[in-house]
Amino acid sequence: MISQLSWKVGGQQGEGIESTGEIFSIALNRLGYYLYGYRHFSSRIKGGHTNNKIRVSTTQVRSIADDLDILVAFDQETIDFNFHELRDGGIVIADAKFNPTIPEGTNVTLYAVPFTDIATNLGTALMKNMVAVGASSAVLGLDINVYQEVVQEIFGRKGQQVVEKNMEAIRAGAEFMKEQLGDNIQTMKLEKADGKKRMFMIGNDAIALGAIAGGARFMAAYPITPASEIMEYLIKKLPALGGAVIQTEDEIAACTMAIGANYAGVRALTASAGPGLSLMMEAIGLAGITETPIVIVDTQRGGPSTGLPTKQEQSDLMAMIYGTHGEIPKIVMAPSTVQEAFYDMVEAFNLAEEYQCPVIVLSDLQLSLGKQTVEPLEYDKIEIRRGKLVTGELPPLENKENFKRYEVTEDGISPRVLPGTPNGIHHVTGVEHAETGRPSEVASNRKAQMDKRLRKLKNIQFNTPVHKNVKHEEADVLIVGFISTRGAIEEAMERLELDGLKVNHAHVRLIHPFPTDEMLPLVQSAKKVIVVEQNATGQLANIIKMNVGHADKISSVLKYDGNPFLPHEVYTKCKELL
Amino acid sequence: MATFKDFRNDVKPNWCPGCGDFSVQAAIQRAAANVGLEPHQLAIISGIGCSGRISGYVHSYGFHGIHGRALPIAQGVKMANRDLTVIAAGGDGDGFAIGMGHTIHAIRRNIDITYIVMDNQIYGLTKGQTSPRSDVGFKTKSTPQGSVEPALSIMEMVLSAGATFVAQSFSSDLKELTYLIEEGIKHKGFSLINVFSPCVTYNKVNTYDWFKENLTSLSTIEGYDPSDRMMAMQTLMKHKGLVTGLIYQNKEQKSYQDLIHGYSETPLAHAELQLSKEKFDELIAEFM
């Protein structure tokens, strides 16, 4: 019996690889296992190798596994491309149809299962995925009845016969595999899970759900990988709440439309990836100087330009902090788990209205698309705060004087009135303006308004700006990361501790304004600081050096080949530096 | 009830004396009063350029955005508060050069807003460069030998993109312009009004006198029917786009807001932000 294993299914894109992984993992999630999935895919609709790697565990896991226990292959390319990941003693379950072969001289066992033939005999070759699911389940020692509910949900609308045929295919795959395994049947049997009901979702689901919970009722967006799921989810769900999603002509329209919507009083968002964010930069400055709230999600992918559109990277950091010409107040958040992505979205809308500025929620491909088990989200944690939004009646304006929308206040935040409100008329402009909103180039006014805007974030209230796992007052090393590297760092940290090292871990959740007060003592109390990030220039490390200092003890572990960090890579590279 | 004077404020426009935009300002103020609006019920969203300043010269809500993006901002405002009357405004550079993509798609989308373009065939605020509306041979600082790019046949383009309300006017004719803006506001869907608004400083070709000589009023064309799209296109082509009046209106087509599924009949800006526990549980259950 084992407590966790790593399973991967691969084949040609468009062949149903997705659904194989989906059915397998939904069933396991319902049994109470913790899952973490990561898809390898290309920027094309059909053809090209694709795979879905799923880690199954009886405890929470937040990283893909270093190696692989089971590889399910629908073609030889899958074996050739992924074989090196298989651990000693691992197995390959491949469709007998293509006469699979594996390299000689390894301790990996190949089981050729006639996925296609079994499926064809049962009615249609399309069900070969189900045969593979059944075969996999036999290895794990799962009762295949667990699939009944899932298959019913997926195929129910196609009729009971289809449901039964698919169940038959799963059963046939399991039976065939059991015979093949013979005496080896116990080697990869999974320990029983706790049976608790948990959510199973990708980061983008949590981001979209968090937007709804945070009161967003309008979205404007342009399709892009890996952000589109956010728009697609909201298109399905917002109409039931009276809201709407507009797919715009480009990201400039998406951002400016969301700005217009927020100005007029609805909580609105846009979401994109690097190329879209680059187009939005001028508009972000407009939101900054007009003090219009807006929430923008950036699901980072490989850059620059089109870069690696379907691959993992964290290289938009500097652009998100500094992007737009001129200087504006801006908040950049970086959730590190799917749960945090949900709660952070709710908070992003609150902060945007409280501080009347753009809020960028920074995700990355691994967080946005990695499907994982999530502890149920809590309704009671949802709170709506609207800051200095004027809701009561206003006294008449004298001599058509404008309402002082940009009144210089101690905290820099001015009362905000929505268009349509009697006696609240004011002007809004991206030109420097006076308290009334009217354009003004007077030097003293310019300084007063710049200072007012930049003062707003001086005392920003943010819950947990740094996620800390700090066990040692004095550490040999402080490992720092952000967004989806959290799981790999946590596992590497455990291994480094086993080697006798004192390791602290800080995951930065508020990127800008940088939480210097939180980070400084952690950096000071460590002999060495290693910043783990998925870019080539060490952007987070530079931000830390700039804000916290201690450049001499800060070094970087970088990865920018498009693939997520594996725990052993973080471990090995940290070891080299220590 | 508000009169046009209630839509005036005390800001002195920074337009040159004689600029055509003054009439557009006056026409918006009159039209707003004539259709029965109070100043707080109107939001003018404008672009960048001389004409873009107009949102600050009317006593109403106003948002002066970034170059070329008045339309997406205006559409966002309308989507957030469908009770507001939303006018987008800007110049020919704003709408037909940098913002052309938005113009085409705002037309297709047909959200219920009114777009007024102050077309002077030149870039004025940057002190005299060619515009997509400048004629071939037009000499400017950026076309010292005369423009070799043909002017956009903008009304034909707007019509072929599927606009449901297309009008053109001349800033000298305050009466017609006011009427067309009123009709545009009343139209259920996207209305576009192109206004020949001469630049007295940088455009010495397309002057007030030039327009008086070259424009044909549709009211002088016997049997002109603005519900006939084919006739509208033929008339535009015959007169090289130099006509004024209501060129085309489709009163049957529903606006975007009336077509999309589920969209709230009350302003989204007034929506309850807190999800009910019941709705939350329903959404969560889908991921279990």
From TrEMBL, chain A:
Residues 475-569 form the Pyruvate:ferredoxin oxidoreductase core domain. Residues 210-450 form the Pyruvate flavodoxin/ferredoxin oxidoreductase pyrimidine binding domain. It comes from Paranoxybacillus vitaminiphilus. It comes from the Bacteria. This is 2-oxoglutarate ferredoxin oxidoreductase subunit alpha. Residues 14-175 form the Pyruvate/ketoisovalerate oxidoreductase catalytic domain. Keywords: Oxidoreductase. One of its GO terms (molecular function) is oxidoreductase activity, acting on the aldehyde or oxo group of donors. It holds the Pfam family POR. One of its GO terms (biological process) is response to oxidative stress. The lineage of its organism: Bacteria, Bacillati, Bacillota, Bacilli, Bacillales. NCBIfam families: OAFO_sf. Gene3D superfamilies: 3.40.50.920, 3.40.50.970, Pyruvate-ferredoxin oxidoreductase, PFOR, domain III.
UniProtKB/TrEMBL annotation, chain B:
It holds the Pfam family PFO_beta_C. The keyword Oxidoreductase applies. The keyword Iron applies. InterPro entries: 2-oxoacid:Fd_oxidoreductase (IPR051457), OFOB (IPR011896), PFO_beta_C (IPR032686), THDP-binding (IPR029061), TPP_enzyme_TPP-bd (IPR011766). Its cofactor is Mg(2+); thiamine diphosphate; [4Fe-4S] cluster. It comes from the Bacteria. Keywords: Iron, Iron-sulfur, Magnesium, Metal-binding, Oxidoreductase, Thiamine pyrophosphate. One of its GO terms (biological process) is cellular respiration. Residues 199-264 form the Pyruvate ferredoxin oxidoreductase beta subunit C-terminal domain. GO terms for molecular function: iron-sulfur cluster binding; metal ion binding; oxidoreductase activity, acting on the aldehyde or oxo group of donors, iron-sulfur protein as acceptor; thiamine pyrophosphate binding. This is 2-oxoglutarate ferredoxin oxidoreductase subunit beta.
